[in-house]
Amino acid sequence: MAKTKNEDKVVTCCEATRQMLDLAKKEGIETVFDRAEKMKPCPIGADGSCCKNCAMGPCRVPPSKKEGEPAKVGVCGATAETIAARNFARMVAAGTAAHSDHGRGVAEIFLLAAKGEVEGYGIKDEQKLIQLGLDFELDVENLSIKELAIQVGERCVAEFGQQQGEIAFAKRAPLKRQELWRKNNMVPRGIDREVVDLMHRTHMGVDQDYKNITTQAARCALGDGWGGAMIATELQDIMFGTPVPGTGKINLGVLKKDEVNIIVHGHEPLLSEMVVVACQDPEMIEYAKEKGAKGINLAGMCCTANEILMRHGVPIAGNFLQQELAVMTGALDAMVVDVQCVMQALQETASNFHTKVITTNPKAKMEDATHIEFEEHDPINTAKEIVKAAIDNFKNRDKSKIFIPDISENMVAGFSHETINYLLGGTFRSSYKPLNDNIINGRIRGVAGVVGCNNPRTTDDEIHLTLIRELIKNDVIVLTTGCVAMACGKAGLLQPEAAKYCGAGLASICETVGIPPVLHMGACVDNSRILIAATALVKEGGLGDDISDLPAVGAAPGWMSEKAVAIGHYFVASGVYTLFGTTFPTLGSKKYTDYLFNGLEEEWGGKWDFEPDPLEMAKKMIAHIDKKRKALGIDKARERVLMDMEMRRELEAG
To answer: Which of 129, 203, 336, 514 is paired with 432 by a 20 to 30 Å CA distance?
Structure first.
């Protein structure tokens, strides 16, 4: 395992990463792991105990060291819990803004495409378009597909600026959950509306009640999970196709020495979809051959990678912490980036090689990088310009610097809610009933959503893999997205053969259906798929009447992004017990943290928790699942009943 300058510290359990870090050390190239070692986090800031929301500060309010000592407050008198709540809420607001701005961009392009004002995009999933029309209460029966697409696009765009009422997709949640949200004034009015409200109330001298701040933070976060992020996922499915399970490869070994290597990195698939098309264009391939390459090899990184893997089988070069390492292979001709999780250090690393870093979004430029702006009215030609730039850069390779680890892994990805429904019940009887039945009979103990980022403050990938292996060993099926999904892919957990790591019950289900015990559901924005799947479990019956009744949990063991806080909070507000590892942003206030970890469950049915040890995290998650099973009365082992023909007829009639 690779180590940093502190030779006692193991930083990764990924062999490809280890090889590249050894190369970095030899060549004197600094990586994110080195910077994490040198840059110690501020303990007061990490615990949410520092307020810099006005120029009277920054004010530091760490916990009192002596018993009976008066609690410290800020210059304005703000208490530790108020400061911690404001900092937490601002992370939720930023995370919601990032995910939802992604959704806005998708909605705007979708509307332009529906009107015929932009080429390259179409309607690939009419059934899902019709479902959205029903969600928006449109006159679906009397509208053509084009008319319906325009009206759906207009309604989706309007969800962002709406000032009153309720966002449409909130009605997708179980009825009991909707009632709880309305009772607590938590249903988002409009996506942007709640971000602005939350930023306002966390300004100096506004909201000073930590419980009230937390409720508005939930309203804002729900605008992400059941609003902006869900809009992004649904419209991407309609335009690019709803994912179905397919095979792919992952890790740095997918790069090729004799082809033009292009990596698309970031989060918005609007451009990457067009780059896929451009890389397959015979004219572009012939141009690459004219420049001495055998062809064009496209790969993905971070969440953009998940998107194009699910729909096109494009291989994944790596996750968040491997972005600099991909450049260091010396074989990468262009790193094409859009927004979110793109390290500024990429350009510095690229200066040691021939790699061209190409920014594409006006929101996200980088000093010294090449900027080729994504032209929404002419996306295919933008993509071709980018691919051509990569091809032209192929001749600048220094062959003596090329080192590609011969390491990659096969995987199966693309388990949308619709796919799970189909796999369990077939074409004519697609249903979550088999899943519910197997949870009730105990073959599947429960469901865990394990999502989120990589964080160099922990051993790369290890925290995710340790947790997930422990869960599936105990018959807990895992739904995963984002960089966690990539960690699972690199470790072979996204293959049906991984059933050998499961308990007997889960293994029998995986072997019967032919699925992995860990289901890749997409990018971080696709966590909305998990919300829909959880709702489907409730609506199928037998597992309670709200998401909070389910034997289900959520976790982000290696989180690092503000988006993760927004995601976690909308899961908690949806009724899910949600755990973070690595660190937690409110630990400086014992009172506020206790409210998040204990008080919320009584109010919302879901709650937060923090556990840095993955095995202890697994114990907590399994204990919660068992508690929910007991409450449902399904904690006892049930005798297996062989069904006769009469029983089967009754089932079919039901």
So the answer is: 129
Q: What are the boundaries of each domain within the chain?
A: 80-240, 252-401, 429-632
Classify residue 71 by its DSSP letter: P
Residue among 285, 551, 571 at smallest CA distance from 443: 551
- Other Cβ atoms within 10 Å of 562 Cβ, number: 20
pTM > 0.85: yes or no: yes
Pairwise CA distance, residues 185 & 187, whole Å = 6
Cα 360 to chain centroid distance, Å, stands at 22
DSSP β-bridge partners for residue 3: 10
**How many CA atoms, within 13 angstroms, populate the side-chain half-sphere of residue 379?**
21
Average pLDDT in the 459-484 region? Answer: 97
342, two tokens: 């793109």
429-632 shares the fold of 252-401: yes
Alpha-carbon distance 190 to 175, whole Å?
20
Triad 379, 383, 388: Cα angle to 5°: 150
Look at domain 252-401 and name its CATH class: alpha beta
User: What's the mean pLDDT in 457-484?
Assistant: 96
205 phi and psi, to 5 degrees? 80, 15
Sign of CA dihedral 246, 406, 387, 339: positive
The CATH code of the domain at 80-240 is 1.20.1270.30
The answer to which of 105-114, 432-441, 461-470 has the lowest mean pLDDT is 432-441
Q: What is the rounded CA–CA span in Å between residue 21 and residue 316?
A: 19
Burial of 63 (0-12, 13-18, 19+ CB in 10 A): middle
Task: Give residues with Cβ within 8 angstroms of 60, minimum separation 6.
Answer: 44, 49, 50, 72
pLDDT of residue 377: 87
Window from 8-12, 197-201, 559-563 with minimum mean pLDDT: 8-12
Give all strands (DSSP E) within 302-403, no chain letters.
316-318, 334-337, 356-359, 370-371
What are 505-523's pLDDT values in tens digits?
A: 999 999 998 999 999 999 9
Instruction: Band the pLDDT of 583: cuts 50, 70, 90.
Output: very high
CA 156 – CA 133 distance, rounded (Å): 10
Q: How confident is the model at residue 644 (pLDDT cuts 50, 70, 90)?
A: low
